[in-house]
């Protein structure tokens, strides 16, 4: 028996080859650090204030109401009331008729929506253009689908007058972008408003991307989870509404970001049936189905927003106003202590330049770890303030150019932002004394 048990140990590799090199994840490491050391966590992207009352009330009604079928399976590709109201909403936003059964699919958060896009539309040998900095799951998801990510960075153009930089000052070089398109290009991933920068792509920039997509017959995976979170009177433009783009674009959205309820994990895709039919195949063969009761509550939330569309009491009007004040407060706090914030036009993230803090965390020559990683770890352990290193949002090829920046999340209670401000002020006093 002993010799049999020795032989029974597996010697062949167990890991699928497509997982090679994508096993590390920034969130696993930094969430653990924040949980261990942080007094104030401005790292991870979730609000610490409550979801709106109308949404939690809708969930309570769904739970305790008379419809016991809400505890059972619903339609696999989306609860009928939810796909119906999403279709009505996006008809308004895109100015076109939508069929709730074929142009909308509900997913387990925007994360699964993205996974379905890459699995359904990308195959071995396909290239996918990713604009840097990028939400970190795009690269491993492209690789898992057998595709090759091709990176093109937004390049910062600091204003000459000494003013704070804005996310609008980070732009694509049109020639550089055009050079990334080839006959192997299957898709481009667009994230506007962009996490981590908070950049809202302008009509001119989107027009340039659209022109290249049409010219090279390329798909666009448009991650628009922060579509309602835009500031200073800026407009979020949906690339699918531009000429020639509806037919080749999948829009990804999220109730987590839209209604400040990230733990509900309700997302969706909107697009033409010719693309969505393939996403449905991946969905039905992976998760199959999302929680019925959460979909019901989100449907009611959208129903309310549809009747209040564009009115001052709409949550989609109120939330960005509140967040803009929080953004401005954090900008002030960071600027006062010498971290130079880049003013975001959207999202609930803000990137700050930490160059002036190099004396606190000296460089380690020949270190494999990027400076912003070391700085962020030092800051959470020694100051109790958690953030995320910006270079985590770059490819290996470009990450070393962006190691003087870190990302904060300002979708937080005022008390949390005040506590962060107190840490920064104390830090400043220690530096000057």
Automatic annotation (TrEMBL):
Name of the protein: KAT1 transaminase
UniProt keyword list: Aminotransferase, Lyase, Pyridoxal phosphate, Transferase
Keyword Lyase on entry: yes
Species name: Dasyornis broadbenti
GO cellular component terms given for this protein: mitochondrion
One Pfam family named in its UniProt record: Aminotran_1_2
Quaternary organization: Homodimer.
Record InterPro entries: Aminotransferase_I/II_large, Kynurenine-oxoglutarate_AT, PyrdxlP-dep_Trfase, PyrdxlP-dep_Trfase_major, PyrdxlP-dep_Trfase_small
Aminotransferase class I/classII large domain residues: 39-420
């Amino acid at each position: 028996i002993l010799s049999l048990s020795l032989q029974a140990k597996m010697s062949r590799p167990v890991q699928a080859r497509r997982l090679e090199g994508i096993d590390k994840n920034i969130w696993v490491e930094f969430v653990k650090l924040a949980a261990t050391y942080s007094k104030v966590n401005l790292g991870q992207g979730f609000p610490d204030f409550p979801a709106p009352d109308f949404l939690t009330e809708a969930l309570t009604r769904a739970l305790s109401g008379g419809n016991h079928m809400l505890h059972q399976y619903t339609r696999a590709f989306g609860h009928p009331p939810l796909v119906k109201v999403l279709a009505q909403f996006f008809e308004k936003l895109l100015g076109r008729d939508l069929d709730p059964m074929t142009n909308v699919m509900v997913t387990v958060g925007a994360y699964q929506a993205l996974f379905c896009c890459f699995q359904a539309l990308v195959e071995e040998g396909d290239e996918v253009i990713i604009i840097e900095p990028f939400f970190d799951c795009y690269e491993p998801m492209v690789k898992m689908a057998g595709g090759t990510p091709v990176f093109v960075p937004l390049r910062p153009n600091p204003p000459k007058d000494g003013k704070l930089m804005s996310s609008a000052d980070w732009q694509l070089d049109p020639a550089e972008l055009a050079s990334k398109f080839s006959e192997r290009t299957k898709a481009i991933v667009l994230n506007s408003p962009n996490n981590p920068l908070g950049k809202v792509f302008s009509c001119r920039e989107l027009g340039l991307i659209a022109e290249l997509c049409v010219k090279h017959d390329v798909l666009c995976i448009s991650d628009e989870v922060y579509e309602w979170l835009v500031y200073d009177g800026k407009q979020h433009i949906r690339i699918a509404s531009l000429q020639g783009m509806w037919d080749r674009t999948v829009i990804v959205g999220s109730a987590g970001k839209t209604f400040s309820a990230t733990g509900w994990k309700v997302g969706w895709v909107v697009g033409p049936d010719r693309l969505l039919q393939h996403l449905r195949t991946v969905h039905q063969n992976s998760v199959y189905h999302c929680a019925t009761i959460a979909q019901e509550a989100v449907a009611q939330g959208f129903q309310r927003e549809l009747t209040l569309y564009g009115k001052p009491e709409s949550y989609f009007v109120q939330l960005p106003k509140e967040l803009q004040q929080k953004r401005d407060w954090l900008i002030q706090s960071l600027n006062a202590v010498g971290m130079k914030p880049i003013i975001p036009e959207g999202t609930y993230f803000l990137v700050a330049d930490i160059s002036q803090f190099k004396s606190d965390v000296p460089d380690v020559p020949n270190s494999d770890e990027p400076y912003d990683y070391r700085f962020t770890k030092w800051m959470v352990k020694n100051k109790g303030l958690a953030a995320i290193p910006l270079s985590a949002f770059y490819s290996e090829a470009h990450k070393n150019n962006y190691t003087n920046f870190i990302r904060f999340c300002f979708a937080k209670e005022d008390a949390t932002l005040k506590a962060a401000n107190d840490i920064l002020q104390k830090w400043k006093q220690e530096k000057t004394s």
